[in-house]
Design brief:
2 strands; two-stranded antiparallel ribbon; mainly alpha
């Protein structure tokens, strides 16, 4: 009897990057970012654009501080964690100097994300809950949704699923209100993964399918589509439906083959080999 070791395309932070975790035991999930390179060009364009605005010299104090935090998130999106952290610290100090409370909370959010796996999750939760209290009274709803989402991940890492799902749902409601389809697709994915961890397979399947529907509605994105398909396949396999699992793993394989990125293609071969073995083929 072999041990399944599927590669899970997993937790979506609030920062546009879909991660893959090579693990099967959900309580032991570790963040292992594989630099798949799906979005660095878009992120670099965004970073350059924000830098141009900052260097223009035409910004008011509040706008400058806000743009500095935006730059931090853009750098983090492009995997420049140290540069993103430094930009966030600069923005935080500038916001404090000018008594910009909401921007200070926004900068703290970027700092927490940039150091998320380098500090105790309990500490992150305390800071995030303080950030949420400030942002809840502001107009920064997208930032608030990000804070709820990251807080949900911290609670989930602590094994506190009830608190995690509450935060995920709060993020989802904001994305629904704002009609932010990208954020909503990611929220559905995270909720699905939590239900999967609790072995609530019907609910997990429903949320992964909702995420996939939004990905298609937005015109498709290789990473997001493969993420949802892969998670669906694993849910079906955990729920003893290997034929359904194979159907979705094959779709992931076709996407990876088309993109021709060797690391992801290798992951697809791994997953297909395991499910074929389980089917006795």
């Amino acid at each position: 009897m072999f041990t399944l070791n599927f590669v899970i395309r997993t937790r979506v932070f609030f920062i546009f990057k879909h991660t893959k975790v090579c693990a099967w035991h959900w309580p032991l999930l570790l963040l292992v970012i594989l630099f798949a390179g799906f979005q660095p060009l878009r992120a670099q364009v965004k970073t350059d654009s924000i830098r141009q605005v900052l260097h223009s010299g035409n910004l008011e104090t509040a706008d400058y501080a806000e743009s500095m935090v935006d730059l931090s998130f853009a750098l983090l999106e492009n995997e420049h964690l140290d540069s993103g952290y430094n930009a966030a610290v600069t923005a935080l100090n500038f916001a404090r100097l000018n008594k910009l409370k909401e921007t200070e909370a926004y900068a703290k959010l970027a700092i927490v994300f940039s150091r998320f796996d380098k500090q105790p999750y309990d500490s992150s939760i305390v800071v995030l809950e303080d950030i949420i209290r400030v942002l809840a009274e502001s107009e920064k709803k997208n930032a608030l949704a990000r804070a709820y989402n990251l807080c949900g991940i911290a609670f989930e890492r602590r094994g506190l699923y009830k608190q995690a799902i509450q935060n995920y749902y709060k993020a989802m409601y904001i994305f629904e209100e704002k009609k932010d389809l990208h954020g909503l697709a990611d929220a559905y994915n995270n909720i699905g993964l939590l239900y999967q961890a609790e072995k609530r397979y019907p609910e997990a399947t429903a949320f992964f399918k909702r995420s996939l529907e939004l990905v298609y509605k937005m015109g498709g994105n290789h990473n997001s589509e493969a993420n949802a398909l892969n998670n669906l396949a694993i849910v079906y396999h955990e729920n003893h439906q290997p034929s359904e699992a194979l159907k979705y793993f094959l779709k992931v394989y076709e996407l990876d083959k088309k993109e021709n990125y060797p690391p992801n293609l290798a992951l697809s071969y791994n997953n297909l080999g395991l499910v074929y073995s389980d089917l006795g083929q």
